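Researcher: We're teaching a course module on how sequence relates to structure. For the next exercise, students receive a sequence and then see the predicted structure as tokens, so they can try to spot secondary structure elements on their own. Here is the exercise chain.
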Amino acid sequence: MPSPVPATRRGVLAGAVGIGLLVALPALARAPMRVEVWKSPTCGCCGDWIAHMREAGFEVQIHDTGNTAARARLGLPAKYGSCHTALVAGYVLEGHVPAADVVRLLREKPAALGLAVPGMPVGSPGMDGPEYGGRRDPYDTLLVERGGGGHRVFVAHR
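Model: And here is the predicted structure for the students to work with:
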């Protein structure tokens, strides 16, 4: 059996630097993902959803211009509509989509237009304030196909 090679100071330092880089690189790669949001300037639940996204580590750019034109420009049919429309990494987000669902979308990178939570379901992020008395209605986050025609349930929230 060969004898172990004695560690040199330079070798130990190089190993420590290498381990330090392996630990630091993932942190450097986790720069905040930017979400661009179009909403009404007076909508409180939109502001609460934005706070939810920021708490999850997203950087949010806000356009207080309403979202109907943005939704149409991004190719999302009105049937998926809600009170705000967003764009993240080329994906459309419509309505009160939970940040965890957005993280999954960005990790899996499906061939899709984006995610939608149609309407304004009570209990979804931004629709979960004290004024709702803890009520949580079931709802689905939909994965909307490109072209906007079809969808499937991405996450069922029960």
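Model: If you want an answer key for the exercise: The first helix runs from residue 9 to 29. Confidence is low (pLDDT under 50) at residues 2-29.
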